[in-house]
Amino acid sequence: MKLIDLLKGIRVIDIDGPTDIDISKVVDDSRNALKNSLFVAIDGFSVDGHKYISEAIDNGASAIVISKELYEIGNISNEDRVTMISVENTRRALARIASRFYNKPSEKMELIGVTGTNGKTSITYYVEAIFKEYGKKVGIIGSIGNLIDGELKRTKNTTPEPLEIQEIFNSMADAEINLCVMEASSHALDLGRVDYCQFDVGVFTNLTTDHLDYHKNFDNYYNAKIKLFYKTQKCNIINIDDRYGRRIFNEVKNLKTQLLTYGLDSSADIFASNIVYSAQGVRYTLNTPKGKITIVTNTPGEFTVYNTLAAAACGYIYEIDLQTIKQGIESIKGIKGRFEVIPVDRDFTVIIDFAHTPEGLENALKTIKQFATGRIIVLFGGGGDRDRSKRPKMGEIAAKNSDVCIVTSDNPRSEDPKRIIDEILVGVHKVRNDFISIIDRKEAIRYALDNSMANDVILLAGKGHETYTLIEDTILPFDERKIVYDILNEEH
Questions:
Q1: Residue 418 and residue 409: Cα distance in Å, rounded?
Q2: pTM for this model (two decimals)
């Protein structure tokens, strides 16, 4: 593709060099640059791509997109007449360039975006199950990974960077995927990662405290989330029970895009009634404007009702019959790291959940209270280099809703894990003085297992689907499922 075609629609500040040249590859990592490639220099959170322009040129890049003045970049040899394009924001420029390079692949399928603090991953898998039951080929982009034609590939971010997103869409188009359901994180919406993605449907789950290390305040967090609902063409699906869902509803209700609500109250378009909670799951009546049907899920908790209602609303808006929606939802036997019961063959229960926000932790613990006959043991920590305001709140919630409170490490990154724990304990101390503090998470899990009694429920919160831990700049293997089994097998 010609460089001049890739730059169409982008506000270019300055161009130095020819634009009527062929571009065979677009990269945002200088190490991946090849002959006739276009390197887009991104100023990221930890690495500034402008520092690697010379490396990209040495590797064969014939054009460079920058957002900084050349004198800020340093001495760049341009003897080979590499074309330099200056723009206001390279990340947003990359989103458009990548979409053009791959011939706007998101337009070749239906695209559903799911945003909110909690529930995004579960909803994507329920939606996938419904549409798969309906006979469609479905792809997923989310925190567990990217699912393309049944093959799961891991990804670093909940919502990938613009170039990777468009590459994934292109792969899905090649695999003849009919529909993609994607988690749209607040970072992705705010940074423009999902710009030039043609969303047909947007789903809002809820909004609670999270990511304030990045957004700085709750208004910024909210304003990032609402951007999705100005990008959609077919329908916006909103949790009307959530206070911020009602706020979004009122802000977007005059758009041309159809609006559909879901909740536990009959005032919603899609709602649940006759709800029965148990240790084995949830049973309820799914009510829609076109009829109702009984849903029985394998995952307990009120959050499961909300997640399945949102997925059912997606099926409804595409005119999928209720029986197929039911069969799709009920085909899900569990989602990795989302209130996942680990079969340990003991007289106690072990549950792994991704709960890493105050509300997520509270929801998980309150769900356990609905069926627990023994003690509730909670093990959790706080992520390093992330929103510190969550830590004492999570400590207080854990202390209030458990019998045994174990505070440990959880991806400390560059922070001192002891300091993170101390900040969590500020909240614990508001409720009680009896707690367990063990920095080593594996040893904390061992303590929980060794000190469990008959009918106890152990909640390992925070890691969920993750199979690693982040300590400083090192990624270390840490699969809690394997760790639980290894510890239990040591007894024999």
A1: 8
A2: 0.89
